[in-house]
């Protein structure tokens, strides 16, 4: 049943973590897990926070504004700090959190490290399966 499932049961474990100084072109060239539609921006130092760049951010903040992907750095368009969840969170609570904040996906962070990405699609398609 869905009430027994956790984020760990439905999340993608493969993520792309990039440096904020990369250009958008470089970031997209290094992106290996396109289905997540998200690049996680690494911390600048241990006390820093992670950031994210969604495919939608690139479309709206670079392409739609007619900027060059070779001239825009990740730090210029990233979202930081981010909303994240833990792998032990129930999919019900995760779904509530994501919809409350109008998010379709977010990083999964355990003990200060990124361990995956969860999305509403993951929750619906994988969380409802027995």
Entry summary:
This protein is α+β, with helices and mostly antiparallel strands and 130 residues long. The chain has helices at 7-10, 24-30, 55-63, 74-77, 91-100, 120-127; strands at residues 17-18, 38-41, 51-54, 105-110, 113-119.
Count of beta strands: 5
* Gross morphology: globular
Proportion of residues in β-strands:
15-25%
Largest sheet: 3 strands, mixed
Count of distinct structural domains: 1
**N-end to C-end Cα span:** 6 Å
CATH top level label: Alpha Beta
Write a concise keyword list for the protein shown above.
alpha+beta; CBS-domain; three-stranded mixed β-sheet; two-stranded antiparallel ribbon; 130 residues
In words, what does this structure look like?
This protein has 130 residues and is α+β, with helices and mostly antiparallel strands. The chain has a single domain, classed as CBS-domain (Roll), CATH 3.10.580.10. 32% of the residues lie in helices and 18% in strands. It has six helices and five strands; from the N terminus they run αβαββαααββα. It has helices at 7-10, 24-30, 55-63, 74-77, 91-100, 120-127, and strands spanning 17-18, 38-41, 51-54, 105-110, 113-119. The strands form two sheets. It has a three-stranded mixed beta sheet with strand order 1-2-3. Strands 4-5 form a two-stranded antiparallel ribbon. Strand 1, helix 2 (24-30) and strand 2 form a beta-alpha-beta unit. The model has no long low-confidence stretch (mean pLDDT 93).
């Amino acid at each position: 049943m869905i009430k027994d499932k956790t984020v760990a049961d439905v999340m993608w474990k493969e993520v792309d973590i990039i440096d904020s100084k990369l250009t958008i072109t470089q970031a997209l060239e290094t992106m290996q897990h396109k289905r997540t539609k998200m690049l996680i921006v690494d911390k600048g130092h241990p006390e820093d926070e992670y950031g994210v760049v969604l495919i939608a951010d690139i479309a709206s903040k670079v392409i739609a504004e007619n900027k060059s992907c070779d001239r825009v750095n990740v730090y210029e368009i990233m979202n930081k700090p981010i909303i994240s969840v833990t792998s032990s969170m129930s999919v019900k609570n995760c779904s509530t959190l994501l919809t409350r904040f109008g998010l379709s996906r977010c990083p999964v962070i355990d003990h200060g490290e990124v361990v995956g990405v969860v999305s509403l699609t993951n929750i619906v398609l994988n969380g409802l399966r027995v």
